[in-house]
TrEMBL record:
<dbReference type="InterPro" id="IPR042086">
    <property type="entry name" value="MeTrfase_capping"/>
</dbReference>
<dbReference type="GO" id="GO:0046872">
    <property type="term" value="F:metal ion binding"/>
</dbReference>
<protein>
    <submittedName>
        <fullName>Salicylate carboxymethyltransferase isoform B</fullName>
    </submittedName>
</protein>
<keyword id="KW-0479">Metal-binding</keyword>
<dbReference type="InterPro" id="IPR029063">
    <property type="entry name" value="SAM-dependent_MTases_sf"/>
</dbReference>
<keyword id="KW-0489">Methyltransferase</keyword>
<dbReference type="GO" id="GO:0008168">
    <property type="term" value="F:methyltransferase activity"/>
</dbReference>
<dbReference type="InterPro" id="IPR005299">
    <property type="entry name" value="MeTrfase_7"/>
</dbReference>
<keyword id="KW-0460">Magnesium</keyword>
<keyword id="KW-0808">Transferase</keyword>
<dbReference type="Pfam" id="PF03492">
    <property type="entry name" value="Methyltransf_7"/>
</dbReference>
<dbReference type="GO" id="GO:0032259">
    <property type="term" value="P:methylation"/>
</dbReference>
Length: 353
């Protein structure tokens, strides 16, 4: 169930922050890719692009980096082919409507001009093939691969949780990890077939530092939602059996788990593996209560954009406003008392010969 990345108002700031943090790594990858092959045509893809503008920031950085290299090396600009991928239900029109102004701005910033640019939508789950064999040079994905293709099977005993938590039984923890292994291995296999030899791929995944999949640093954002749902069960608003049968298709891997799957699949060399931290508000300051309360509202709206369709499908629409009102209250309280942060795992890979 590849789904929309986690962002709206606050999520957009979070996405911007992550793109800024990973920019040096992307530039390093693009430079080594171009200088190593000097291609006349370059194809890049953003996987899980959603409908926001963050994908265009990555595309802009990609083209600018290559054009600067062309100037330094006195080479003719290549042709650029850019693919935006997400599930078929994604609103690609939001991206496409902004392409004319995007290209005009890019040309103005690069006074020497840029090579021809062609843009395409590529709807489909990235847990399967999207592109033809060896047709892509550079792949980018940010905050999408924590979503699994489906909820793991045989986790009916994950009582009072909606994801992994401190009370999740060992079989549930194992089922989530094994689903992650299958999904990420398939993702790597598909991308290995689509990337050219020497092609680069940079992935940023919401993850965790701890080796324990049920640790707080990977599960806290969903534990708070489970708390709100459990309160509604106690007050008779939601039936207990409804909650006990609701789980989300999500997994926050540790750096070692990401590395292990890459090594097992075997198609890629690991150039870099980094861990970064971003505050839940997407700003670095841990500030006063009124700021955290506003951030709590914004993050609640992001979570609602991400989770509402799943919640409505399982619990019905009538409880949604009440749930997110409770969620926001708990979230703002926690953010006022703790340094709540997202852990991010970023990996840069090169397609082996």
């Amino acid at each position: 169930m590849q789904t929309t990345p986690l962002f709206s108002v606050i999520g957009y700031n979070l996405q911007q922050k992550l793109i800024c943090l990973t920019k040096p790594l992307r530039e390093e990858a693009i430079k080594s890719l171009y200088c190593g092959t000097l291609p006349r045509r370059l194809a890049m893809a953003d996987l899980g692009c959603s409908s926001g503008q963050h994908a265009l920031i990555v595309v802009s950085d990609f083209i600018k980096t290559v054009e600067k290299l062309c100037l330094e090396l006195n080479h003719k600009s290549p042709e650029y082919k850019v693919f935006f991928n997400d599930l078929p239900g994604n609103d690609f029109n939001n991206i496409f409507k902004s392409l004319d102004s995007f290209k005009q701005k890019l040309c103005e910033e690069m006074e020497s001009g840029i090579g021809p640019c062609y843009f395409f939508g590529a709807p489909g789950s990235f847990y399967g093939r999207i592109f033809s064999n060896q047709s892509v040079h550079f792949i980018h994905s940010s905050y999408s691969l924590q979503w699994l293709s489906k909820v793991p099977e045989c986790i009916d005993n994950n009582k009072s949780n909606i994801y992994l938590g401190r009370t999740s039984p060992s079989n549930v923890v194992r089922a989530y990890y094994e689903q992650y292994q299958r999904d990420f291995s398939l993702f790597l296999k598909c991308r290995a077939e689509e990337l050219v030899e020497g092609g680069r791929m940079i992935l940023t995944i919401m993850g965790r530092r701890s080796d324990d999949p049920s640790s707080k640093d990977g599960c806290y954002i969903w534990e708070i939602m489970a708390t709100a749902l459990n309160d509604m069960v106690l007050q008779g608003i939601i039936k207990e059996e409804q909650l006990d049968t609701f789980n989300i298709p999500f997994y926050t891997p540790s750096p070692s788990e990401v590395k292990l799957e890459v090594l097992k699949e075997g198609s890629f060399a690991i150039n870099c593996l980094e861990v970064s931290v971003v505050h839940w508000s997407a700003w670095d300051e841990w500030s006063v209560l009124d700021f955290e309360s506003e951030s709590g509202y914004n993050l609640t709206q992001s979570m609602r954009a991400v989770a509402e369709s799943m919640l409505v499908s399982h619990f019905g629409e009538a409880i949604i406003d009440e749930l997110f009102s409770r969620y926001q209250e708990i979230l703002a309280d926690r953010m006022s008392k703790e340094k709540t942060k997202f852990i991010n795992v970023t990996i840069l890979l090169t397609r082996k010969p």
